[in-house]
Write a structure and sequence with these properties.
alpha/beta, 11 helices, 2 domains, 14 strands, L-2-Hydroxyisocaproate Dehydrogenase, Chain A, domain 2, binds nicotinamide-adenine-dinucleotide, 18% strand, six-stranded parallel β-sheet, single chain, binds (2S)-2-hydroxybutanedioic acid, Rossmann fold
Amino acid sequence: MSKSVIHVAVTGAAGQIGYALLPRIASGAMFGPERKVFLHLVEIPHEKALAALQGVAMELQDCAFPLLDGMLCTSDLEQGFGDCDWALLVGAKPRGPGMERNDLIKENGPIFTGQGKAINDFAKKGCRTVVVGNPCNTNALIAMHNAKDMPREAFSAMTRLDENRAKAQLAEKAGVHHTKVTNMAIWGNHSATQYPDFENALIDGKPVADTIADRAWLEGDFIKTVQQRGAAIIKARGLSSALSAANGLVDHVRDLVNPTEKGDWRSVAVPSDGSYGVPEGLICSFPVRVKKDGGYKIVKDVDLSDFGREKLAASVAELEHERSVIAELLA
Ligand code: NAD
Ligand code: LMR
């Protein structure tokens, strides 16, 4: 029996990430080579943005993707999220040079109240929402609180780009292909306080320290490079990451709809269930495993050292601070 067409809403569809993301979704990279997709392309109701969106839609049409069942362009949230299976919330302002991601919170946070409510009211009951727009953990918290009837587990924020960055850095230092690096957990916030956990990562199935003996590099340059990679790209490109961000989102969703390989895990920012002392409800990045039935579980038995716990605590403190700044947006 052929599977139903999957409806995917993408906000900020005329933006940089949208441009790199939409062809990946339409060509099957996210939901597989047998699943047709219908795209809901959502933008702000501004003439320039909507004109650009029409251009993107024309290009998608001109790709003649076999898996693209159709698309709509809109700035209306009822239409945008109506009956969608996935809501990918990319649309938000990116930071500029010299800014931290949470400098965007006052401007971007309010976007996610209306979108959370619209997802609640118009999306399919099983709709899953991923937030990419920064600061993504706290924006996901806002969307989740405003989507009162949706299960909390349906909301996540993206730290997969950080996981991919961390794998690439370890692989380069070890002189191995990045596919040899597994169990790469990002803990905490998608920010400069995140903790890329080299102590529990594996290279070729063995602890990282067996291949990279330089602990000072792991504690210093490695962590800093991953934490600051977004800023380094902004400095180099004059624009924030887009193709790697779109790729991170493809990986994030694909790995939420397929069971995780035995023994491995993925980094996903999800509502805390209190694990590792992270206050319940905060959207925090954890190592996560996806089960055969499609649900996920935070991996409970990761041995976090005192060093790791200290790093996680600093990132959680930042998340709590962000939550206090936008407290009035949490319905
Ligand atoms: P961009 O400026 O190129 O595009 C953003 C688009 O969003 C624009 O077209 C804009 O009109 C649209 N938009 C703004 N508000 C909207 C709303 N309320 N509804 C619908 N559309 C809206 O930016 P970009 O480079 O595509 O980045 C988008 C966001 O993703 C930024 O906040 C950026 O910081 C973030 N980001 C996150 C990660 C991550 O790893 N989590 C990685 C890269 C970028
Ligand atoms: C990234 O990590 O590349 C994005 O969050 C963009 C940014 O502001 O760093």
